[in-house]
Amino acid sequence: MKEKISALLDGEGNDLERERALRALGADPALRGAWERYHLASAAIRRELDVMVSPGLADRIHECLQHETQVDGSRRSLAPRALKFTAGLAIAASVAAIAILNLPPLVSPSTAPVARHVTGKNAVAAARQTPPEQQNALNQYLMQHGEFTPAAGMNGMLSYVRVIGRDSATTDNANAE
Amino acid sequence: MTGFILHRYSLAVLLGLVAPLALAADAQTLFARMHQAGIGLDYEGTFVYQHGDRLESLRIVHKTGTGGVRERLVSLNGAPREIVRTDSEVRCYLPDENATLIEHRRADNRNFPALLPDSLALLKDIYQIRAGKEGRVAGRKAISVHIKPRDAYRYGYQLWVDEASGLLLKATLLDELGGVVEQYMFTQVSIGKAIAESELKPQYPSKGIAWKYADDKSPTPSTRRWAAARLPPGFTLSAHMLRKTPASKQLVEHLVYSDGLTVVSVFVENIDDNARPNVLSGLTHMGAVHAFGKIVDGYQVTVVGEAPAITVDMIGESVGPQ
After folding, report:
1. What is the complex's ipTM, to 2 decimals?
2. Which end of chain B is more exposed for a tag (fewer CB within 10 A), N or C?
């Protein structure tokens, strides 16, 4: 789990892994300690120790949140709140880590858990991946569609990238063997 | 008084010369430059294309000249697919499928695909547009343009434009939560260097079937037979034509719906006489592209677009004979 926490600090992992790590953080005091130590270490590397928070802060916040939730009497709301807070930390941490390299983040930090936007048609949002044989059938349509997309005007043939720059899964597998 | 005006004027000119983009970094200027650069520059480079959990690397060569714009796009990993595009046609070489698709371009006559700065004013009702953040892409100074939709019917765009030339260096498509749907980014690019003719020749010419689409100037249908009954806010019919599929030479009705930035294509074709094993049905996606298929009265309806699921679904479900 500590590896996952470290990955979280570095802004790595997908949404699911991040959510798992944040849940684990909320449940385990030892992990919260590790979380602080990792922050301390990364601050030390960056020589930013003067901005480091005092030890036990995560625990104290966790306690406050727990207390608040018990007063509310709704145990359910604890997880999302704790999650939101730690997610905030995670975002700050990953942004800081990225700032060192001065590179644009490949995966936006905003992909961290956020309240799902309710459109009333969320069922549609879960469209399945187009099966490979249908992707081939779709090529001709994408080519014809491509000339009408603004992307074609903005930068040559970005829209055509989809026709050739996709589904190299079979070749990738062949390379791996 | 005159002196004052002159002074202000020359100051503006001076600033304009010193930092043309940083100071006048409004979206309008950037869009105009981006559009010009996309057409008028010679450049070659390598860029990455990320969609879902996949990462691809591609090379692009772009050359202008008396014969118009010519481009070649090569995938660097996986199947060695290539696209060579001129002003009049698009050739897609697919060695892994032993095929070449040749598509004559229909849009050029009306200069439709260009995202002209004029249309930006109209876009502001549907998108929030911010520009001017400075950054660095492929080792070059870049300025950002952030285009955020005002509803859930379209994707947002985060664009990074080369400060010196106006070339688009990085583009990220964002969903309604700000999550990345897909993105392109140059990792290396050289702009303004002479490009050899050989760079524009396909490296892997397919020996297989060349599907040639006959260049018949098929007339635009006088009466529309098919249409989408429901459209998301801001979308209108931008183009409507009859074309032929490169493979079967069958006539296809092509309807283009657009809000000025997001474009959704509807294709309708008769499937009475040939059995088609891979007809698309229902809603699927390939990266940012959502595709929808259904059969109505013996016609296959196929909808594709770089748009959220709800948009493609709404348009697709509502397509029917008029």
Report:
1. 0.73
2. N
